[in-house]
Queue: 2 jobs
Job 1
Amino acid sequence: MRIFTVILALFFALGVAAYMTLWILLPRQGEATSILTRTVNDRRDKEILFAVAIAVLTLLIAFITMGVGLPGVTLWFLALCCLAAVMVWRGASNDEKESLSQLSTDLAKLRIGRNDGWRAVALRTGFGIVFIIWGISLMSRVSGENGAAKFVLGGACALVLGLFVLFAPWWIRTFQDLSTERRARMRAQDRADMAAHVHDSVMQTLSLIQRAADDPQEVTRLARQQERDLRSWLANPEKFGAQSTSSRTLSQSILDVESEVEDNYGVSVDAVIVGDAPLDDSLLALIAACREATLNAAKWSGTREVAVFVEVEHDKVSVFVRDTGCGFDPTAVAADRQGVTGSIIERMRRHGGTATITSSPETGTEVELQLPRASHSS
Amino acid sequence: MNVNQRPTVFLVDDHALIRAGLRAELSGHVDVIGEADEVAAAIEMIIERSPDVVLLDVHMPEGGGLAVLRAVTKVRPNVKFLALSVSDAAEDVIAVVRAGARGYVTKSIEGPELVEAITRTAAGDAVFSRRLAGFVLDAFANRPQENSFAPALDPELDQLTPREIEVLRLIARGYSYRDIAGQLEIAVKTVESHVSAVLRKLQLSNRYQLTNWATERHLL
């Protein structure tokens, strides 16, 4: 049936119209509804159809006012065909859509084909040359004619179309090759970066670990250092290595303290930080006191683990440094001992904060630092 | 679980070394009744053997621990999950906890602590590490400017009671449940029920910070 209609369409434009109308009105074999009913029942489809109708109408009016000499009937007929095509495209069932898109990709292959057969090349070149000649001839007729604008316009269009048909495949392929190459280069770059980093860090650490195999503390230290290193690299490869010079927030500074004590004393310092704040003078003092407390725990407590908990609230910052080690008697510490009194208690008091030390042989030691905050915005 | 019996445990981890290490540390304290190294086998065997506790590696190929948890919970709601993670970053395990795990421990955990965590999980209690406690405090903190575009908070689910905050802070400071009970002068059982309540909120709350963690990592 379709083949017959196509043949008919070659001779009579009416055939196209009839085919379109039938396509829209009649339900397809094995389907309950026709395209028309589907389109009418779908609000979005109706809207799209309406929009396209307006666009086509505008185009028609533009053509007519420009005085393009197409016979009125043909023009209206073309417009209706456009609308019908849109309707079919929106309302077609999935099967139909698939076969339609298959058809269009086949067509596209013919034109832009990646593995150009000589026929496609010949066809394309032919089309391109015809359009160019048509364009040039139209433009060359400009002088001495009335309504020359339409010829210039049409000629330019034909020229552009011709150039496009001729050069589009080449242009598209160049573009694709370029992006493929760029992607490949980026991948190679990534791999090189990765290899460099693995060599600089992991390989070095592994060889250090082999050499220090009989010193478990050193091995633990190296492993933890490497782990921290890798983790920060994974989290943020671009900024890696850049942040060590200056840390601008409380949490980064606390993490620096954590790694410093871990690296120097071979204990594991685990910091849990809730919230964050930009650094100021009193926070720097808090961090210094925290560092001192952590160092004391690492040096004297006898345990391998120090727990640091930092919480930033809107009105205060609290720091807890706790170990489950041997403990000591805070009251027995001489007042002139710099470690506890000067570096922790006095320092906190100078900045309006407090330091409380609780310690016993059974439960270990906990240093609690509190610092009230001026009304910060966060 | 029978009170007199040791809890039965199933191990899911794609690293044979880790499984062997866990087995060695757990032997004599709990009954390890099976292990699996990939998702499909794990689901099948856990459903078949129905252990008290599944020790579940979070980072596994083919959907990972989350897939195992979801599939098993549908069929065997009584099986309890304890997530096991190399990293102690809470955002890695938050999706697993929200999917129903009773808590999580890191792979660097010492043997006795792990046994205690498993026993606690088997009894139906929650297992919070310091870092998870810190994360919950962070996620449930009231920061008005961040919540302005978030849905209205349900006080039942989206807010912690002052007591729960106290308990979480003590966990984050490194205290055991027993120490916390001593400090707050309450029973250990009460501490456990506070932590379980927090776990429930962590799983059911729609707080922006919680859902955001998971969706950012395409885990929901």
Job 2
Amino acid sequence: MNLFDFIAGHYDYWFIIILLAIGLYGMTVKKNLVKKLIGMTIFQAAVILFYISSAIKADATVPIIMENLPVDNPANYINPLPHALMLTAIVVGVATVGVAFALLILIYKNYKTLDENELLELMK
Amino acid sequence: MIEKNLPAIIPLLFLFASLIIPLLGVWKKNLAYPIATLTALASAILSLYGFVFVILTGPINYYFGGWIPPIGIEYVYDHLSSFVVLVINFVALFVIAYSYQPVEKELPGKQTAYYSVVMLLLTGFNGMIITGDLFNLYVFIEISSLASYALIGVGDKKAPFAAFKYLIIGTIGASFYLLGIGYLYFMSGTLNMNDLYNILPHMNDSPTIIVALILIVVGLGIKMAIFPMHGWLPDSYTHAPSSSSALIAPIGTKVGAYAMIRLLYFVFGLNYFSQELAVSDLIAIFSSAGIIFGSILAIAQKEMKRMLAYSSVAQIGYIGLGIGLANPFGFIGAVLHLLNHAFMKATLFMVAGSIIMKEGHSDIFKFDDTYRKKYPWTMAAFTVAALSMVGLPPLAGFFSKWYLALGTIENSSWLFLAVILISSLLNAVYFFRILEKVYMKSPEASAAKEEIKRNEIQFSMLIPILVLAIGLIVLGILNFIIVEHIYKMMPEGML
Amino acid sequence: MKHGSSSPIILLLSRVLSPYIMLFGMYVIFHGHYSPGGGFQGGALLASSIILIRIAMEEKVHQLHFNKAYGIPLGAVGVLIFFGVGFIALIMGGHFLDYGLLPFPGIITAELRFYGILLIEVGVGLAVMTILVSIYDNLLEEDDDESI
């Protein structure tokens, strides 16, 4: 396929790759610990977006039973399993951010700074 | 009814205890330790019963909610998972029984919260071992990881930063694993391990499966701490409280190794990852580098817990080498070393915790031979564990290195054989240094005239250490029985 | 926060909005088993209604609204509801979360599975709400000498 189809046909995968790269950049390059945490959250959001973008089918509707639509053909409804899996993954991400904030408050109470270079100096 | 529901009861017992402890802690604070120990004891007895039951009757497959796989979530309780569950629960029982005094000294007043998080950690580990569904494995990886970040972060002044580093690296590892199983789900449409094993040979030439394999190996390798991805381990194990590092160090990386064995051998299949791709060679090379790196850096350390952490990196390298060899002796060596290293590291970390409690420090250069008179039984257990780590027969550590060496000879990889032998010598250097300081009389100590009295640690800390040390001798002598059972755990097509 | 907000607009609007957000959260929980919604989403909405009051009002008022000592025990009760429903199914002879065997008389098996998920979602919603509120409380505990 030509280059235009390669880029525009898979535009959702390109968005996910850009989000993964931004997340990894934030985690490795930025010096503030809170910015590293935000980079990790962006990385997890990209993985969640990847699962949800796989559930779509062409010309399909939401998987809720309504009275006037027949339920015999499963090609009419999008796949609800990745959505249910990603609910669990989002809750796991929220819990991780909660634990991370508690650890950051302990670090701030002990060292009075949240910058990585200053912390490595103070911990020698 | 107990036998039919055994795969569900063992993790759920720990979850139930983790919920009861805060509720009863509102009423009476010091009920946390008895409930935790009783739950660990009940789980250890149930896993022993389950292990014997699986040997006599065969594997149990358990469907949650009554939905048949591949629609539902399946728990697979076969020979390998019942064996690893038995090892994990047995070691955890003794470490929890040991931990009453250290928790009271280092974390006063936080007993309820500590034991509740310990029960959650063990729920996560048990669930990771028994499950047969790929996404359920991710959920339990995250449950156990969050509990271990919390248990590590309450240590000394540098502990929260070490736990934060572990949090970032561990979450990235779990996200890589999630992305990998996402690729597998899109190509095959199922998340069940058995079903995927039947479907994957039909789609061998797809680059998606190759990328999924690499992502899963990197993700689980971070959890297991194979060589380039071990960076979180030394700081976390050093600055954690004594009872946390005694609990997480013997068990945590082993469960990651079990997940790697389960995914590589039982989902992707032996042919795929060792003959068609060179992933097994890559794992073996990185593990060997980790063995040498860990052993050399352990010699350079001054503090005992940090030395034991680098030693853990080296020992995980042995298990990785066994996985990467992909032949029967390598498999036996890996599973046997999983069992032996859990016992050895638990003993060593418990001894380090006792020395910190009694002396206030764990600096190796301040050890002197008064320890031989003050803590005779503790140092005896340390000697047994140290000799077993070096690999002297008839202790347990010799036999796992023997089978690994046989595995490398069968593959004709002489470089890995040299790595195993050299690293045993390096292990001897850093362990014998401590033994020399404790047992040999130093020249200037003869000037001390005062009487050194015996100041042994309490029974609640001493008995678990002694039981695990005697267990090392027993496991060494009876290892041929264990190896006979490991033959039944191998995947089809290996023998 | 320790001191309430000084602007009357925030004080009035938070007190007006919070009950409606709570009602919407209950709606989302109870519609989880046949339309979008469920335990996690409804629990987060309920938690946001409680945290809105905590941001706007002073400490005496918001402790009357939801006392912070109830946080973790109620969370444990929520997960115990989940665990208890599964355990009852285990005792009645089935597998762990097999809702078709719950002991309610006169309802056929398919409808029992339909309503069994509702019981689980209530437990999950309670747990999520109390845990999110207690995360907020614990993060603000150290906040002694800074006034916001």
